[in-house]
Amino acid sequence: MAVEQAIELVAVPALSDNYVWLMHDAASGETVAVDPGEAAPVLKAAEDRGWTITQVWNTHWHPDHVGGNAEIKAATGATITGPAEEGRIPTLDRIIGEGDGVRIGVHEGTAIAVGAHTSGHIAIHLPGEAIVFTGDTLFAMGCGRLFEGTPADMFAAMRKLEALPGETRVCCGHEYTVSNGRYAVVAEPNNDEAKAALAQAERLRAEGKPTLPSTIAAERATNPFMRAATSEELGERRAAKDSFKG
Ligand SMILES: [Zn+2]
To answer: Required cofactors, per record (predicted)?
Structure first.
């Protein structure tokens, strides 16, 4: 009996406002942890479900995304895949960049180079599952700070992510949606969809629920960084958000 089973996807809260994404494929028994900033809550979330982590995928080198790599590998034997990032992820078993493939069971994904937040930052897209892991590049109604790249770099990254199918679920690294939404409705005061998205995010957070995943279609409609017409406008908005007290 061959029954097509969807991949299970869980957002595990970690550190102060990170999400580590656990993705489980029942058919193969594989479980991937994406961007484990710490190990304990991730190992527990997997154990609670009877899952064993077989792979770790990283989107960029920041410690709140890779801090749990070594401990998870020691506990489970998982292999660790991520971007080169000039050697700043010392726990990697395999380095991937633009166009390189990953897989969980029979489900395939592709790395997309989106350097801007960090120079080597990647997103990982699984088209068959309609999932993209965006790390700290694309957030719900936001984008990452430009630590190592320029507004033009982030503008280019937004074009790549915007081009994914609208139903693609956006799994990002932080619960920043309410803060981002408060800025989004200031950046685009006539955007009713952003207002509605902010109201929904506030309701979900009041109930203690994650606001994620978002979707590419929702980001096209509400995200002031994806919606910026030029890299200059994106840069102005990023600078405004950096000092925004919402
Ligand atoms: Zn980061």
So the answer is: Zn(2+)
DSSP 122: E
User: Are the CB atoms for 119 and 37 separated by under 8 Å?
Assistant: no
DSSP state of 189: T
In angstroms, the Cα distances linking 35 to 27, 176, 213, 220 are 23, 16, 15, 24
Span of 3-7, 70-74, 190-194 with lowest mean pLDDT: 3-7
Give the CA distances from residue 237 to residues 6, 131, 241, in Å, rounded to whole numbers and listed in that order.
38, 27, 6
Active site residues: 60, 62, 64-65, 117, 136, 174
128 Cβ contact partners less than 8 Å away, ≥ 6 residues apart:
107, 108
> Hey, what domains does the chain have and what are their CATH numbers?
8-242 (3.60.15.10)
For residues 154 and 147, the answer to whether their CB atoms sit within 8 Å is no
| CA R_g for the chain | 17
Question: Is 17 annotated among the ligand-binding residues?
Answer: no
CA of 113 to the centre of ligand 1 (A): 15
125 is in an annotated binding site: no
What confidence tens digit (pLDDT) does each residue in 121-143 have? 999 999 999 999 999 999 999 99
Instruction: Spell out the residues 6+ positions from residue 126 whose beta carbon is closer than 8 angstroms to its own.
Output: 7, 104, 107, 108, 109, 132
92 CA distance to ligand 1 middle (Å): 17
Which tokens belong to 151? 């507004």
**Contact in structure between 111 and 124 (CB atoms under 8 Å):** yes
